[in-house]
TrEMBL record:
Active site positions: 344 (for fru-6p isomerization activity)
Main location: cytoplasm
Species of the source: Halalkalicoccus paucihalophilus
Designated name of the protein: Glutamine--fructose-6-phosphate aminotransferase [isomerizing]
Domain of life (superkingdom): Archaea
Residue span relative to the full protein: 244 to 592 of 592
UniProt keywords, alphabetically: Aminotransferase, Cytoplasm, Glutamine amidotransferase, Repeat, Transferase
Length: 349
């Protein structure tokens, strides 16, 4: 059932090229096959509500929305539900939830509906509670995900939200559709060539693992840290790179490893943050396509991704970070598919 893999997590990491092809085939032609045409009428603004990995995917999505000129904000579902927000006519509240059963997210939907908002579920599970409660549902079609750590569904959520942004953006909107055509190939290339196991081995036993990025590299940093702590039980934190100097830098020592997510945008600023960490003795592993020589010179270690536009580069970097977490946890003999204290769907608030 694990198709020859040791764990569902690594199987599902390897399923990403197929999962992405599935969603592009289904929704990639500019139409979103699941949605009633009326669903998007008059939508001018979007609020995302989500938890955990889905929150990171939504945050990533909100950068893509902003680039297309569509105002979007991302909210932790558990916080959204604590107070009602004003929702105007053109507001759509989008619940991003793999399982469609997360209690915090369902509570946020209820809060939004009470305030009069229209709601949409972006989910992997047909017939899930979120898909039934929301006015409409968009399915990410990643196939079943069994490992507790969400992997392929993060990638599919980001692609789904980007296709959704394309659909919402008018003809004269800024930017253009993100070109995901080469994403399955890019992910496959990483799966075939990643040095992540060696890197995980090299830094095994370090005190702390930090993840930093800017733009879409920020949600990827948050997601990298969540995955790492979740399955390896090591101390891991993700930060917006610019925030390092506002506090977290106090944690950085020669026993720290910092993973820096380079996407091709704001690389110079991120390099500045890398130097800040190195000055405190940390080892920096850059996730990069290698086209910026300064990054290659400055980094202590490198994990490569194929060259692509920033909105795709973040997803590719995320795959390298999924692999790092997996190998770090495997080297420590952790129960990767069922980490302690965690459940696949969290049905209590
Ligand atoms: C982390 C993880 C969780 C979920 C979160 C939301 O690997 O899987 O953080 O992302 O519990 O779950 P869904 O997406 O089902 O609402």
């Amino acid at each position: 059932e694990k198709g020859g893999y040791d764990h569902y997590m690594i199987k599902e990491i390897h399923e990403q090229p197929t999962a992405i092809r599935q969603i592009l085939e289904c929704h990639g032609s500019g139409e979103l096959t699941d949605l009633d045409p009326g669903t998007l009428e008059g939508v001018e603004e979007v609020q995302f509500v989500a938890c955990g990995t889905s929150y990171h995917a939504a945050l990533y999505g909100s950068y893509v929305f902003a680039e297309r000129g569509i105002p979007a904000s991302t909210h932790l579902a558990s916080e959204y539900a604590t107070h009602e927000r004003p929702v105007g006519e053109g507001m759509l509240v989008v619940a991003v939830t793999q399982s469609g059963e997360t209690a915090d997210t369902l509570a946020a939907i209820e809060t939004a509906q009470r305030a009069g908002a229209r709601t949409l579920a972006v989910t992997n599970v047909v017939g899930s509670s979120a898909s039934r409660v929301c006015d409409d549902a968009l399915y990410i079609r990643a196939g079943p995900e069994i490992g507790v750590a969400a992997t392929k569904t993060f990638s599919s959520q980001v692609v789904a939200l980007s296709l959704f942004a394309d659909r919402l953006a008018g003809e004269d909107s800024p930017g253009g559709p993100v070109a995901f055509d080469s994403l399955p190939w890019g992910i496959q290339r990483i799966l075939d060539t990643s040095r992540s196991r060696d890197v995980a081995e090299r830094y095994r036993g370090r005190d702390a693992f930090f993840f930093i990025g800017r733009g879409v590299g920020y949600p990827v940093a948050l997601e990298g840290a969540l995955k790492f702590k979740e399955i390896s039980y090591e101390h891991a934190e993700g930060f917006a790179a610019g925030e390092l100097k506002h506090g977290p830098l106090a944690l950085v020592t020669p026993a720290s490893v910092v993973f820096a997510v380079f996407t091709g945008r704001d690389d110079e600023k991120l390099l500045g943050n890398v130097r800040e960490a190195q000055t405190r003795g940390a080892t920096v592993v850059a996730i990069t396509d290698g086209t910026n020589e300064e990054v290659l010179r400055q980094a202590d270690d490198v994990l490569f991704v194929p060259e692509s536009e920033p909105a795709v580069a973040g997803l590719l970097a995320n795959v390298q970070l999924q692999l790092i977490s997996y190998h770090a946890a495997a080297l420590l003999g952790r129960p990767i598919d069922k980490p302690r204290n965690l459940a696949k769907s969290v049905t209590v608030e």
